[in-house]
Amino acid sequence: MRQSAIASLLSLALILSLLPLVALAASEQPSVKTPPQPKSALFIGNSFTYYNNSLHMHVLNITKSASRKQERTNQEDTFYTKAMTISGGYLKDHALGAKGMIQDFTDGKKPGPWDVVVVQGYSRGPLTKETAPSFRSNGRKIDSWIRDAGSQTVLFMTWAYQGRPEMTAPLVKAYTDLGNELGALVAPVGLAFENARIANPAMNLYAPDKKHPSLLGTYLAANVFFATLFGESPVGSSYTAGLSDKQAAFAQSVAWHTVQQYFGDKPDA
After folding, report:
1. DSSP for 123-177?
2. CATH (domain of 210)
3. Containing domain of residue 113, as a range?
4. What is the pLDDT of residues 174-197, one digit of tens each?
5. pTM of this prediction?
6. Using one digit for the tens of pLDDT, what is the confidence trace for 148-175?
7. DSSP string spanning 83-132?
8. Domains of the chain: total
């Protein structure tokens, strides 16, 4: 990454430190905060996950290239990830077909249980009175399969649509509440999208349909997952997904700041 982009992180960090996080009541703070530092991860989701050559591949590439705060022997060689996606899938759709992949999957590269299973449902699933009960009940069902398999659930907090920032607060509440009920870790991707919107609206996180992620949006989400799963800053990662240095530095810094905010740590980058 060029020095100019790295230097710009100083002013960006100042801007981000002034950003208001979506207010959460004390009872709505995430209860699970410990990074699992997995060696394997299964991503279950829909097009929000598989857009732009799939989120899980970007997480893998960041994991290979990010500066490491602590030594891990051959971590870049041992981290293994796959994705299982259904177009337009709700959690009820994943509940029809994900059990085998969660509990019985094995191959030569990844024997045994997944360390973490990331679960992402339909973007409006938690928000309407018709679909919110199914979001919760199927979240519980899928979580029970994950636990039975000896794995850990990670919930993928989705984002507000472009031009609909009012979606952010109820999404934060829905995913945080479900995470606390299940004792599951939550990756605050939706919060990162909102912080990015406030910090620099010119950084476009959306595809033309104003719902799906642009490459920058997917890259931002991947950096949030890296920071959530490993408890480390993605800032300085050499993997940029083909984005400009400025865009990559912005996404890395917003992701790290948001993860620190959400889990109650003092932002330092």
Report:
1. TTTTTSTTTHHHHHHHHHHHHHHHHHTT-EEEEE---PPTT-GGGHHHHHHHHHH
2. 3.40.50.1110
3. 3-16+38-262
4. 999 999 999 999 999 999 999 999
5. 0.90
6. 999 999 999 999 999 999 999 999 999 9
7. EEE-TT--HHHHHHH-HHHHHT---SS--S--SEEEE---TTTTTSTTTH
8. 1
